[in-house]
Records
---
Amino acid sequence: MEVNCEGCAGCCLDWRPLGAPDDREREGRYRALDDAYNLVPLARDEIRGFVDGGLGDALVPRLFAADGDRTATVGGREVAGVDGRPAFLVGIRKLPKPVAPFDGERVWLDACAFLDPDTLKCRIHDTDRYPERCRTYPGHNLELDAETECERVERVHGETRERLVDDAVSADLPPPPLSRGALGSTVFLHHDPDALADSGALGRLVDGAATPADRAAFVAAAAASAPGTAAVNEGRYERARERVLAADSWVRAAAADWEAAAGARGDRVGGAPEADHVEVERGAPRTTEWGR
């Protein structure tokens, strides 16, 4: 499996303002309640790695609206769940950034927190924090004969160069994030729905106004989960929640600056702070040149 990502980053950006052709994450039986595009589900051990590395503030939960009997009611909202407990995924936050993908002009788009807006490269590529599902993308799409983000970019923007260079499926694909056995590994259950209801966290997550404490409540529950079970270790939960709340990484500071500077999504960038000032000077890793 080989892809040409230079100048693209279609799987790391919310490029709906530039013509992304569908909103498939809000269709079907399980429909994402947030408005993020292409949220990458992290595995429990990856979540623990971010939390232990002081990057718990770079993570965000995703909950789902659902039909049928696998639901839970939290604060008057019905969401996907099991035995009255809300189910959720955890991914990486999307921040507004000034980017120029697909050989176009510089515009404001929501992007993965770890995407360098100048080079359109991942700041954690080839590190132990790089998610397995990013490394193996678009393997599951190819396995299911579903259109990849690479092909969407080619189709919508009429590019003559190939983004999807070959369609061989890697032999080391991780299990799909919603597969049988995903409970406690990529799909998590929050152990205290009453506390979530009392805090109002669910409503703020849906409205895009989540607080650090809202995100920490879910990230910590994922980190304290046990693979193959619905169990959440309460001692580990409290320790993880405290670590997430105490996290003060470059991602948190960059998020505040980008959000303050950003225009409407899809608008041309008239002026923006330098990415090196917003991210690198606060500790973000630099990216290397293409081909290195």
---
Amino acid sequence: MAKTVLVVDDSASLRQVVSIALKGAGYEVLEGCDGKDALSKLTGQKVHLIISDVNMPNMDGITFVKEVKKLANYKFTPIIMLTTESQESKKSEGQQAGAKAWVVKPFKPEAMLQAVSKLILP
């Protein structure tokens, strides 16, 4: 059975690039255009991993991570932040919120898939 990954980014083209890479590697993909939209998609189904941008309208990535960690079904879901932010302060804020990995854009799909395969739970 395929593992499900939720991709959250306000850039449709970025979501597409990430989705193509993930689907090519055999994952199922759900998409959210911002934190608020993504939260509405977490309806109790199994999500094995979340990849989220940091800077988004309506609800930014850090707030989104904090909200996800409050949900019983998703408290332990690993989250990768995929962002243009490379400042240490942002990274530590992300880690404190519960993000497990930080991938800086522009990224190589192989590098992202490597992070995904390390974090995704069997």
---
Amino acid sequence: MRLTIVGCSGSFPGPESAASCYLVEAPFEGRTFRLLLDLGSGALGPLQDVIDLRDIDAISLSHLHADHCFDMSGLYVVRKYHPSGPPPKIPVYAPPGSDWQLSNAYGTTAPNGMTLPFEFHELADGLETTIGPFTLKARRTPHPVEAYAVRIEHEGSVLVYSGDTGPDDDLADFASGADVFLCEASFVESAENPPDLHLTGADAGRLATKAQSARLLLTHIPPWTDRAEVEADLLTTYTGDYTLVRSGDVVEL
């Protein structure tokens, strides 16, 4: 598998990165299969530096906050109105009701117009399904809206993406043995943080240590947050291999 960090800014796009969007690629039937994990605000622009938007094969949306899904509106335009003609529908794995909510966000004139270029499938706690060459498993996480972490497996390699989550010790079991644990770290320990919303670097480190992940990638750090403080928090609970990701980073699994 190859993981490309398209956007990693937390909560909204920053001057150096779009919001959450991660491209996962693997060989499949003589070509490259391309799965997007989230398509947040501002991500559609830099994504075009990496792939042709018509070459997306599937999408998984962790939840329906704008920084994880709102650029679906732009992709709707590409899939419906491209001069070369509309390509086949692509599957979108997302929380229940995503088709209607995304349709309303775009303002389609036809009821539930998002179903024209996309075929929606509901994520659910414990879901396991096959998407091209990947096995995708989903686990619900604590967050103000229905949200999911996903585990992507391919030929013995494992990538786990936390999505957005508050502290959740059981998430370590879901991430157990991951080659790469892509985990959010939006908060810092020095602040008074709301419950069940996001993780600190220390929280992420505890999860990765318990999961025995081979490599931890910290993401979803808001533009106003000091990355050095997030890293310092991480190092109080974690001694393994890690990176605070930046837009454009590529990781081979």
